[in-house]
Amino acid sequence: MPVRFSSIRGWQQGISNEVSWTVSTQEGISRYEVQKSTDGRSFSLLGTRQPVTAGISNGYTYTMEDKVPATGDNYYRVRSIDYNGSYNYSQVVKLNTGSNNHGITVYPNPVTNKQLTLQFSNMAAGVYGIRLLSANGQTVWTGKQEHMGGSASQTLLLGRIATGAYQLELIAPDKTRTVLTVDVVN
Fold first, then answer.
1. How far apart (Å, rounded) are the C-alpha atoms in residues 152 and 24?
2. Which CATH architecture does the domain made up of 3-97 adopt?
3. Which of 122, 67, 62 is nearest to 90 (CA)?
4. Of 103, 112, 120, 110, which Cα lies nearest the Cα of 166?
5. CATH dotted code for 103-184
6. Residue 15, helix vs strand vs coil
7. Among 22, 78, 119, 127, which one has the highest count of C-beta atoms within 10 angstroms of its own C-beta?
8. Considering the entire predicted model, what is its pTM?
């Protein structure tokens, strides 16, 4: 795979939104296109970025500013385009502009392919503790996720988890606890 997205995150900066993405590898990338949407389905071009160096490079972070975000939900994703014309998408990050809404949601729910994505919305930076609890209260999966602050999507691979209903417990850096119901299928 020519590009490997490590993360994508976004945050409000005054009246603008900032989008940042990190790639762990990029080989043969012609350009990056940052796309935005207000519904999470129909995306349009916000702008482009050239790779830091042509050819092979590792561990670069890029940013782009949306100077005119919509009021309400703004969705962003990055499309990497190879020299041969093939492309790859990052995960989508959602920002809610014009409000102080904050929280954590999970998608897709129900979870498929033993992979879920946490959507942090205007959350504090720090390490979040994560536990997945079965219906009878047993811990079946644990982990930690570093969040750089603001809004970002983080994907978790759950491994061998049986189909069923679970409680996902998140402990924020300030020790507040959030519990979400998660259904796992397949």
1. 17
2. Sandwich (2.60)
3. 62
4. 110
5. 2.60.40.3080
6. coil
7. 78
8. 0.67
Total count of residues recorded for the chain? 186
State the Cα–Cα distance between residues 166 and 186, nearest whole angstrom: 14
User: Is the previous residue joined to 110 through a cis bond, with omega within 30 degrees of 0?
Assistant: yes
Residue of 121, 8, 9 whose CA lies nearest to 72? 121
Tell me which residue of 107, 94, 102 sits closest to 174, measured CA to CA.
102
Q: Do domains 3-97 and 103-184 have the same CATH topology?
A: yes
Closest residue by Cα to residue 97 from 155, 146, 150 = 150
